[in-house]
Amino acid sequence: MNRLLYLLTLLMALPLGAQQAITLQDCYKLASTNYPLAKQSALLKHQNDLDLEVISNGKLPQFELSAQATYQSDVTSVPLPNTNIEPLNKDQYRATFSVNQLIYNGGLINASTKSKSAQLKTQQKQVEVSLYQIKKQINQLYFSILLIQEKKQLLTNKQTQIKTQLLEVKSGIKNGVILPSSDHVLEAELLKIAQQFQEIENNKIVLIENLSTLIATPLSLETTFETPITNAVLGKAINRPELELFQLRKEEITLNETLIGKQNAPKFLGFATGGYGNPGLNMLDNSFQTFYTVGLKLNWQVFDWNSNKKQRESLAIAKDLVETEAETFKLNTTMERTAQEKEIATISELIQLDNDIIALRKKVLEATQSQLRNGVITTSAYVTELTHLNDAENGLATHLIQLELTKANYNITTGH
Questions:
Q1: Cβ(139)–Cβ(306) under 8 Å?
Q2: DSSP E strands: which ranges in 75-226?
Q3: What is the pLDDT, as a whole number, of residue 9?
Q4: Could you give the CA distance from residue 191 to residue 12 in angstroms, rounded to a whole number?
Q5: 413 strand-pairing partners
Q6: Contact call for residues 3 and 117 (beta carbons, < 8 A)
Q7: Which pLDDT does position 8 carry in this prediction?
Q8: Scanning 43, 198, 297, 355, which has its CA 20 to 30 A from the CA of 403?
């Protein structure tokens, strides 16, 4: 009941006289835009921009302000008589302001920037892969709705035939050609069809609601779901976004190897420090003084216990792992593609048989209708043959939709 009210509300929201139409491709596009996961791409880009700014700030001068006040138990003194050199105070104070400017770091900042940019491409491609995988869910819902629409149309045709036959049966009863109460069988069948209509409607409501949620777009019972003409070229090479993801992951690892190789490069800096304190740089002057120092500084980690080498070896293993994942994905996708090709061939054969069965069932039904008009058979026998025909038509409709669904899934499997 809640689902029915939900869809009725959506119907009321639509402009009067307007009938919404939607295609399978529309659903793909809407999901790629509206699905919550799609927001991650922009968020990742914004996050990456912030990270790149932080990395680039390493090229800018770095400022540092520090201050300290100390009291020490002893101080340096000059043990010479008559020098008039006052000993230092045990309480000492110092405030400094320093500027450090990176001059050279072996290209570490540029390597870090490239690594971060590669990481963004990998993350965004992962989002694309996740959104791509939703397409099969959309296919299942969309083609299920199409199948229900076909079944509803076939049920409507059956209902029309029974109503037409009911008029003839009542006329035959009135003329004494057909047994009395024969019309009750047809009237009962009409009630059964009404039940089936209700079941179909309820199932369609559920499917439409689920598809509407998946693509984050209002859909209603009045929405026209256009039947796609799916062209699946069998035997096509695999062109999935997952393959691009594997390649991007390997490129990211390669850039990380370069980054690690530059971490132990020598770093050359220039610095300047100004300060005010007691004592200053002149340790023999026991008073508050201003002072400054300028200079150059070299930092170079000469030995790291092979940590850098082991990190690169670990990344090499990670690259091999990505390669095995890619090979596994290709193998599984090829197997899935082969199975779908066989399924397409099988369903195509079933459709040919369905058409033959329907042609025979129609001939049987025509003969049954003639026999019923002449009072040779009962209405129950007629309903049985009509149901057989309807079942055969349902089988054809199901196979036709299954064929289009399998072709659509095949295109997603191969990435076309």
A1: no
A2: 91-104, 224-225
A3: 46
A4: 30
A5: none
A6: no
A7: 45
A8: 198
SS3 98: strand
Omega of the bond leading into 279 within 30 degrees of 0 (cis): yes
Distance CA 166, CA 372 (A): 11
SS3 89: coil
The DSSP-derived string for 258-305 is HHHHHHTS-EEEEEEEEEEEES-S-TT--S-EEEEEEEEEEE-----T
Binned average pLDDT, 10 residues per bin, the chain of 416 residues: 44 46 95 93 96 95 95 80 75 94 93 96 96 95 96 96 93 86 92 96 96 94 90 84 97 95 92 94 86 94 87 95 97 96 96 97 94 89 95 97 96 92
d(CA 11, CA 27): 19
Per-position b or e across 390-411, b if 16+ CB within 10 A of its CB: bebbbbbbbbbbbbbbbbbbbb
15 with 199: CB under 8 angstroms?
A: no
Distance CA 221, CA 151 (A): 15
Q: ∠ CA 33-39-2 to the nearest 5 degrees?
A: 70
Query: What's the CA gap between 174 and 172, in Å, rounded?
Result: 5
The residue type found at 161 is Q
pLDDT at 6: 44
**Number of helices and strands (H, E) in the chain?**
9, 6
Tokens of 192: 């059964």
Label the pairing between strands 224-225 and 21-22: parallel
Contact between 35 and 41 (Cβ < 8 Å): no
pLDDT at 405: 96
| Inter-residue long-range contacts of 373-378, CB under 8 Å, 24+ positions, other chains counted | 373/168, 373/172, 373/177, 374/177, 375/172, 375/177, 375/178, 375/179, 378/179, 378/182, 378/185
Phi–psi pair at 103, nearest 5 degrees? -105, -40
pLDDT for residue 14 = 41
pLDDT value, residue 76: 77
Q: Which CATH class is domain 23-64+96-265+300-414?
A: mainly alpha
Please report the pLDDT score of residue 22 as a whole number: 95
Which of the 8 DSSP states describes residue 90? S
